[in-house]
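Aim 2 progress update. The chain analyzed this quarter is reproduced below.
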Amino acid sequence: MEDKIIFLSRTTTFAAAHQLRSKYLSKDENLSTFGKCNHIHGHNYQVTVTIRGKIDPISGMLMNTCKLHEYMEMAITNPLDHKNLDEDVDYFANVTSTTENVAMYIWNSLEKILPAGCLYKVKIYETDKSFVVFKGN
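Predicted structure tokens:
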């Protein structure tokens, strides 16, 4: 079997509410900076996680997609689905819950539980027209 790097991706969704605001800004500055997103609202986020590595010569897989799904449940669905990000997720107590920061939260959560070095990319859609990609650097 060739010793090439392969990429495996899996997508999940979660629904969450949040309010874009910074504790470093005044009420007027928050409204000016974040516009209508300064008011509490929600999204149906779509997250694609991509891992990378070599195909195991015995199983023929990089990772069983069911196992990747389990990791994503632990790092994404369980802590974030049907939550108010600002109130229910400790990470966002001092971090503005932008999609950029949600992507970093997901990366950090996955990196703690996935096999070392295999996490390649987190792509998160806030809407069908806007998304963030984070590759950990």
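The chain has one domain: 5-134. The mean pLDDT is 96. These observations will guide the mutagenesis experiments scheduled for the next reporting period.
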